[in-house]
Design goal:
Blueprint: H1 6-22, H2 27-42, H3 49-59, H4 65-88, H5 94-99, E1 101-105, H6 107-115, E2 120-124, H7 130-139, E3 144-148, H8 154-167, E4 169-173, H9 177-186, E5 190-194, E6 204-209, E7 212-217, H10 219-227, E8 231-238, E9 244-250, H11 259-280
Parallel strand pairs: 1-9, 2-5, 2-8, 3-4, 3-5
Antiparallel strand pairs: 6-7, 8-9
Length: 307
């Protein structure tokens, strides 16, 4: 990792100071403050506003500009809430984490998959509060490990990973995944992956996401096939009450003997599942990341990055 800079220290201590102040508030009140902070990113600061509105418009071409702007504004509010909620989670007890979840749909799939005795892999996206979803599984007493990339700010990366450990999640950096994921499966743990950010150097494939090719991690599909491990999709959606409903559904894992084709099919399956859930709550999706930035040479403009 690169050494921390003065900017990294300023960001880190700013975040730590904010968390210390917000710990005195209720979860709902702190979350509401996070919404207000997030909205500042939309206006007046306009941080990545053009990117967000362009991607929302590309994903939902039938919307008016006013409707696009409404979803974009709401996504900033949701990101602000999620950021503050995630920062506060390590200060909560197991019982308090469980209380934040209004209900679960498909928990029987988690229990059934674990009963098979080969561990469980869960894929999700930056939708709702993805960190809370992992916290909830850990709070239910199930060992959970999350595969994550190192962040640019090494201080915040260490802080976030420590908060995850306090919640009950172990962290697997993606460079260690080939070694540690099989071990976690042998130990009958749950391993969670975020699968909606393509990155340079990460084994990926291009599959449709809202009608455009998106570079998507293929690791979960490869592991599921090679380890014969059950694979679920999950998301934790925020409700009007401020609490959450967590949804689980099975991702089919079928081997035809042609690895690349099987992997591509599974990746397309969990990506289309994520798209379906984003369509249900587009205001809670992280549109700030340029999802279609990385493209194969020769991709037609109408199927690539909506620049």
């Amino acid at each position: 990792m690169s050494p921390a800079t003065l900017s990294h220290y300023a960001q880190y201590y700013g975040i730590r100071g904010s968390v210390a102040a917000l710990r005195r508030l209720s979860f709902q009140r702190a979350s509401a403050i996070g919404e207000w902070i997030g909205m500042l990113g939309y206006r007046p600061f306009g941080i990545r506003r053009a990117v967000v509105e362009r991607q929302v418009g590309a994903a939902f071409p039938g919307l008016t500009q006013r409707e696009v702007a409404r979803i974009a504004r709401a996504s900033y509010a949701s990101l602000g809430r999620t950021t503050i909620e995630t920062a506060l989670l390590p200060t909560y007890s197991r019982e308090q984490v469980l209380e934040l979840v209004e209900s679960t749909e498909g928990w029987d799939l988690v229990e059934g998959a674990l009963a098979e005795g080969r561990g469980l892999m869960v894929v999700t996206g930056h939708l709702g509060n993805w960190e809370l979803g992992g916290s909830y599984v850990a709070a239910r007493g199930i060992p959970l490990e999350a595969v994550a990339r190192r962040m640019e700010n090494p201080l915040f990366d260490a802080y976030l990973n420590e908060t995850r450990r306090r919640i009950g999640m172990a962290v697997i950096h993606d460079a260690d995944a080939v070694r540690r994921v099989p071990r976690a499966m042998r130990e009958r743990h749950v391993v969670a992956f975020l699968v909606d950010q393509g990155a340079v150097g990460l084994a990926s494939t291009w599959v449709p996401f809202f009608g455009r090719y998106a570079k998507t991690p293929r690791g979960p599909a490869v592991f599921a096939l090679r380890l014969r491990t059950p694979l679920l999709f999950a998301c934790a959606l925020r409700q009007p009450s401020g609490r959450f409903v967590i949804h689980f559904e099975r991702v089919p894992v079928e081997s035809t003997g042609t690895l690349d084709a099987d992997v591509d099919r599974i990746v397309a399956s969990y990506t289309s599942t994520l798209e379906r859930w984003v369509r249900r709550a587009p205001e809670q999706y992280f549109w700030h990341h340029r999802r279609w930035k990385h493209q194969r040479p020769g991709t037609p403009p109408e199927l690539g990055d909506p620049s």
